[in-house]
Design brief:
The protein is an alpha+beta fold. Helix content is about 45%, strand content about 15%. It has a domain of about 250 residues: Ribosomal Protein S5, domain 2 (2-Layer Sandwich). The protein is built from 19 helices and 14 strands. The strands form four sheets. It has a six-stranded mixed beta sheet. Strand 8 and strand 9 form a beta hairpin. It starts with a helix and ends with a strand. About 50% of the residues are buried. It binds 2-acetamido-2-deoxy-1-O-phosphono-alpha-D-galactopyranose (NG1). 2-acetamido-2-deoxy-1-O-phosphono-alpha-D-galactopyranose binds next to helix 5 and helix 7. It catalyses: alpha-D-galactose + ATP = alpha-D-galactose 1-phosphate + ADP + H(+). Belongs to the GHMP kinase family. GalK subfamily. GO terms for molecular function: ATP binding; galactokinase activity.
Length: about 525
């Protein structure tokens, strides 16, 4: 249950959205779709290699008031009028086109590795530029192609839709505003078209993941799973292999010492994943995929020239045990045993300058054992990346040590839950140490941090946090720190004093930049009275 003040604030927000919808579109909305942002407590840049992560939904969210449009004349079949309460985001009208000639490879680049030959719906998404409506279109894509395509065997047409958005998840801050936008949009289009019934949470996560790829980022499923599946009071341990699964894990709550809660602090360095994807996010995806093949070869594991196994799959092949027989504890001990093998990837050549310990494109192709043409087809035809040196060793080391830390984090929480009597402070210290180690790895091996975020984590530790780390994709965005609940105010005051970009902020802006958060509920749709 939210506290009374939060409930009252939310009621005002929902009412305002409904009233504004009516003013703009001349009719009442039928539903409100809501999807929260998430804070990833631990497990960074490992979802796309299919290792488990540990997120919780945050209270900040995206709301969409929605309903069938009466403006068919201006929007056409399945046309959309999308407005945003934030005046920064201009109203948009767009109509999907059903193309019988199929989708070209160029149009699909970054969205899928195969070229669709069949007829399909199309919406123009400009991947070179960040546009708010791209996330709305991305949400629409999956609904159209799943429920209104020739393949779905239906003659039905999508209905025209009116949408009004409002959001409280800061964008580009690592709290997954993009996934919240795509999940909420997917939900809105499903609901207004009467297709939500029969769509399971797992299917919704898969649709949202596919949909988000349309914006040009080859993300894993962490954010979408958290936004859809999370429940209040718990984080979730979300696993992606051999299939998507999620386990709610309550965080330890000691009785005689104050419990610890999570504080998010935005560095105010905005990192736009879609725009920087080729030298940041998508590059990490490609580096880890190529590393998996190279490691597989070094370990003499079976590999076909056309497949693209992830590091998680390589671990399974190395173990030789069917995945279904593996328990979490086994995965943990498997990773521990596997860690020395990673050293095989460490570049050994002498005469390299520091910072040049990666491999060039030419070297990487040689190490893959593929011809240049095969390599391009498998690893580069669907994504654009740019780097002088590709860091196969560092990224792999980050992936396996981080995957291990997630399992250790989960284990500490599960053990704490099973403990009779009070929890020692040591439990919180153990969680904190894992957060710190995760940050160090993100900063030095994954290289997804930035000086401002590193500074925030240092300040957080000095201000008494049990642990502090970057959360989300990185290169800016937020930190998450584990802080004793009775010290949160003092903690925030110290960060404000220490972090120069916070000093000039008004109280309201500061509340937006740094805030304590409790695990909140996942996405839902609210049906409004007619
Ligand atoms: P955020 O923080 O939302 O940009 C991204 C990916 C996740 C995950 C993290 C890094 C998207 C939508 N999300 O999160 O899947 O890979 O980075 O752990 O791209």
């Amino acid at each position: 249950m939210p506290d009374l003040q939060t409930a009252a604030e939310q009621a005002v927000r929902y009412n305002n959205l409904v009233e504004e919808f009516e003013k703009r579109f001349g009719h009442k909305p039928s539903y409100i779709a809501r999807a929260p942002g998430r804070v990833n407590l631990i497990g960074e840049h490992i979802d796309y290699v299919l290792f488990g992560c540990f997120p919780a939904a945050v209270e900040r969210d995206i709301l969409i008031a929605c309903g069938p449009s009466s403006a068919t004349a201006s929007t056409g079949t399945g046309g959309v009028q999308a407005h945003n309460l934030n005046p920064k985001y201009q109203p948009q009208t767009f109509v999907p086109m059903f193309k019988t000639g199929g989708i070209t490879a160029a149009e699909e680049a970054g969205a899928a590795s195969t070229v669709h030959a069949e007829a399909a719906w199309q919406l123009d998404i400009d991947k070179r530029e960040l546009r708010w409506e791209s996330y709305v279109k991305a949400g629409y894509y999956g609904v159209l192609n799943r429920f209104f395509s020739a393949a779905s065997g239906t003659q039905e047409h999508p209905v025209p839709v009116d949408l009004l958005f409002t959001g409280s998840v800061p964008s580009g801050s690592g709290l997954s505003s993009s996934a919240a936008m795509v999940v909420a949009s997917t939900l809105a289009f499903l609901t207004v078209n009467n297709k939500l019934e029969g769509v399971s949470k797992g299917q919704l996560v898969e649709m949202a993941m596919e949909n988000e790829k349309r914006v040009g980022v080859n993300s894993g499923g962490l954010d979408q799973a958290a936004s859809v599946i999370c429940t209040p009071h718990s984080a979730i341990f979300v696993n992606f292999y051999p299939k998507l699964s999620a386990e709610p894990i309550p965080l330890p709550t000691p009785r005689t010492i104050p419990r610890a809660i999570f504080v998010c602090a935005n560095s105010l360095v905005v990192s736009d994943k879609a725009v920087t994807a080729k030298f940041h996010y998508n590059l990490r995806v490609v580096e880890t995929l190529v590393a998996a093949r190279v490691l597989g070869r070094l370990l003499n594991l079976p590999l076909t020239p056309t497949e693209r196994p992830t590091l998680r799959v390589i671990l399974t092949r190395w173990l030789g045990t069917p995945e279904a027989d593996l328990e979490k504890e086994d995965v943990k001990s498997a990773i521990e045993r596997f860690l020395p093998e990673i050293e095989k990837l460490r570049p050994t050549r002498e005469g390299r300058e520091p910072g040049e310990e990666g491999v060039t494109m030419k070297e990487m192709i040689e190490l893959s054992g593929l011809s240049e043409e095969q390599f391009n087809q498998v690893y580069l035809s669907w994504v654009e990346v740019e780097a002088e040196y590709f860091q196969l060793y560092k990224r792999t080391r980050h992936v396996f040590t981080e995957a291990l830390r997630v399992l250790e984090f989960r284990e500490v929480c599960v053990r704490a839950q099973a403990t009779e009597g009070d929890l020692p402070e040591e439990t919180l210290k153990q969680l904190g140490a894992l957060l710190d180690a995760s940050h160090e790895s993100c900063s030095t091996l994954c290289e997804s941090s930035c000086p401002e975020v590193d500074e925030l984590t240092r300040l957080a530790k000095a201000a008494g946090a049990y642990g502090s780390r970057i959360t989300g994709a990185g290169w800016g965005g937020c930190t998450v720190s584990l802080v004793a609940e009775d010290r949160v105010e003092e903690f925030i005051a110290k960060i404000k004093e220490g972090y120069a970009p916070y000093r000039e902020l008004s109280d309201e802006k500061l509340r937006d930049a740094i805030f304590a958060t409790k695990p909140s509920s996942g996405a839902f749709v609210l049906k409004l009275d007619a």
